[in-house]
Amino acid sequence: MRRIVVLAILSFITWMSSVHAMHGPVSGCCLGVSNTTVRLWKIKNYTIQLEGVCPVTAIVFQTERGLRICSDPQSSWAKKAKMKVDEAKRLLEMEQNKKASTSDFASPVPTTTKAPVKQGRKRRRRLRLKSRSGRKCV
């Protein structure tokens, strides 16, 4: 008898959670789209929201201040903003790949450094006078 009651309670909890998940909106979903536009350089990232889980299909842009803008994916502004973010990500990835490729490999030719040449007192004085007056000393 006790097992039947526990099984019934677990079934009820599972059923309630699935009903709530299907009929209640997800907290991160846009409920509608807006015509709000901001300057393209302020947009840092975007995500695509599909209609299956959320009520509308939208592109959610994130600005540098952390604001979220829900935009219609078919609008010209949204397409431009999406291309701008994609281009910035592509350039950043290329730059990181370039840095990684140059720092990953060791130089095939060993590099040597010259030992500092010890200069005499007269040589140092001639160089100092040369740099002051701009004339050539022999």
From TrEMBL:
Pfam families: IL8. The keyword Chloroplast does not apply. GO terms for cellular component: extracellular space. Residues 26-85 form the Chemokine interleukin-8-like domain. InterPro entries: Chemokine_b/g/d, Chemokine_IL8-like_dom, Interleukin_8-like_sf. Residues 1-21 form the signal peptide. Keywords: Cytokine, Signal. Residues 99-114 have a biased composition (Polar residues). GO terms for biological process: immune response. Residues 119-138 have a biased composition (Basic residues). Coiled coil: none annotated. Residues 93-138 are annotated as: Disordered. GO terms for molecular function: chemokine activity. This is Chemokine interleukin-8-like domain-containing protein.
